Amino acid sequence: MTFFAALTDNITLRLLRSGDADAVAQAYTRNRQHLAPWEPERAEEFFTTAHQSTVVTTQLEHYEAGTGLPLVLSVGEHIVGRVNLSNIVRGPFQSASVGYWIDASHTGRGLASAAVEALVAYSRDELGLHRLEASVLLHNAASRRVLERAGFQSIGVAPTYLQIAGLWQDHLLTQRILYR
C-alpha cells in the first residue's frame, strides 16, 4: 500500500520517489542553517543530488524490504520536509523509529504535527505496529511539542545519545504505544 495524506490544500505527505533526489538536495541546501542545530554535521557532498540519489535508493530499498517508510512533504514537486519511519522491526517487537523535519519557510503552521499524526495512524492502521519511538534534543522545544501532541510519552533521557551539530548531546527518548 502506498502512503499519501493531504495535510493542507496544497501540501501533501507522500512516499519518496526515485526521481526526488534533486528536490531533496535542494530542500536540504535551502534549509542547511535551519537544520544545522538539530542534525549531525554534514559533509558538502550530502547536499548534492548525487549523494541524495544514493540516499533515496537506499531508503526505497528499505521500504521494499519492509524496514522503512521514507516520506516527503511536498507542494507539487517542491519538497518542504521529510518524515521517516526507520528500523521497522516485526515479530514480538512491532516497533519503529520516527524522524522528521520541516522547511524553515513552513514552520509554525502545524505541518510537523499533522505529518506525525498521519504517520501514527498509518503505522497503527496499515502497518499494524505496536509502538513508535522518537528521540529529541532536550532543548528542542518545538519538536518536543510535536511529539507530545501526537501522544508520545517520555521514557527517559539518554546521556550523550547522538552526535548532533558536532557535539555528543543528551536526548529525550519518547514512545507512543499504538495497541495495548
From TrEMBL:
<comment type="similarity">
    <text>Belongs to the acetyltransferase family. RimJ subfamily.</text>
</comment>
<keyword id="KW-0808">Transferase</keyword>
<dbReference type="Pfam" id="PF13302">
    <property type="entry name" value="Acetyltransf_3"/>
</dbReference>
<feature type="domain" description="N-acetyltransferase">
    <location>
        <begin position="11"/>
        <end position="174"/>
    </location>
</feature>
<protein>
    <submittedName>
        <fullName>Acetyltransferase</fullName>
    </submittedName>
</protein>
<dbReference type="InterPro" id="IPR000182">
    <property type="entry name" value="GNAT_dom"/>
</dbReference>
<dbReference type="InterPro" id="IPR051531">
    <property type="entry name" value="N-acetyltransferase"/>
</dbReference>
<keyword id="KW-0012">Acyltransferase</keyword>
<dbReference type="InterPro" id="IPR016181">
    <property type="entry name" value="Acyl_CoA_acyltransferase"/>
</dbReference>
